[in-house]
Design a protein that fits this description.
Elements: H1 4-24, E1 58-75, E2 99-100, E3 104-114, E4 117-126, E5 134-142, H2 151-156, E6 160-168, E7 200-209, E8 214-221, E9 248-258, E10 263-274, H3 299-303, H4 310-313, E11 327-339, E12 342-354, E13 362-375, E14 383-394, E15 403-415, E16 420-432, E17 444-455
Antiparallel strand pairs: 1-2, 1-3, 1-17, 3-4, 4-5, 5-6, 6-7, 7-8, 8-9, 9-10, 10-11, 11-12, 12-13, 13-14, 14-15, 15-16, 16-17
Length: 456
Amino acid sequence: MINFTNVIQRLTILVMVTISISSMAQQQEMQFFRPDDRTGLNVFETTKTDTIPFNKMKVKVGGNFEMSFQGLRDQNTALPLTQTGYNGNVNSLEPLSNGFALPMANLNVDAQLDDGIRMNITLYLASRHHEDTWVKGGYIQFDKMLFMHSDLVNNIMKSITIKVGQFDVDYGDQHFQRSDGGNTIYNPFIENYMMDEFATEIGSEIYFHTSCGFFMMAGMTNGELDPTVLAPTKTDSLTGKSNIYDPAFHGKIGFDKQLSSDFRFRITASGYEVQSANSNTLFGGDRTGSHYFSVMSNQNIANGTTLSSANDYNPFSGRYNPGFSEQVNTFMGNIFLKFKGLQFFGSYEMAEGRTITETTDRNALQYSADLIYRFGPDGKENFWIGARFNSLTATPYGFTNNVKIDREAASIGWFMTKNVMLKGEYVIQKYYNYPDENILNGGKFEGFMVEASVGF
């Protein structure tokens, strides 16, 4: 039995220590920057608002930390199945109990190098998928180019933002509200969408902003999370030729404006395409892992691999990766509405692609709707309640039919300070149309999650 007194004492100590660290951290104000705390909520692409004067080079060291308590249970109706190399029924689900999941933490380093020039480096200090430190990526962002000593360039840069490096690909809007390892402070729910569109790739993005709210973005990347300089050795089954590593292209067009003191309206359309890649990971580029631990997992398979834990062999439990590693063509439309404390975020996505061994494309269709109501004394909106519906229909690799997955979630949360957040969620996820011999046949998981999160 869990000793809740000890749990509460440890959480209290953790919060107090983190608040102390946050207050002592370098609270340097950055230009054209999304804060890592509550003030970064509902911030998408950084704007051209220039309100912070540049005096000298500044460095801000911050971080994110989360700790969650899980109370999920799962079930399935898959037929018992034995498999060569594994012991026992590989379709049996790992028994679950209530308990703390592995905490995750990020380290964020931002530097204001010059007027209108900012750099970011983010590290995953610990996560479910990679329990040691990994560099997420780093980029430099230009909102001014005063070093060019050109009035023409200065005027152009009043509407232009240029980002160069390895960064989150700006495909769709959902990646601005997802949980990213220890950084869960932007997400009113515990987990991301079932088909999680997130990858860091090397490349550049150019944004064009207008004062009336319209904006456009064009980007080009290497199409890879893990770059390579080795010559291709595989043959594309579709073309019959040696694989090539084409660049990936993505773009976005949208409108985002505070139409009145109470009402904000944002709508965007974005797309991403790559025709040939070494191993594209747009739908599987997260190096941190799901925040639903060990659901729909089998310990027998885990024991038969070089990884000893189901956390390791199935780090993305509860998600769906279509596996479009060779070719990807995808489109997403998003709408965001906020009237006083009531906000709605909707997403509709159509994706198609294939692996290098396939000769035809497979499809995936995902849509979701989040409804959040934020409230609190004096209009602070430091409390919220929310509901999410997320549905996915797709053809997995090797399947001839579509499968369907639905998730319903309800959340409640509290920003104790702008740096410290506590939230709870109840979730139900169901799997449909999986074959009898598949572990997800008749699959379902349900239960509660509680998470504490810090960002500074």
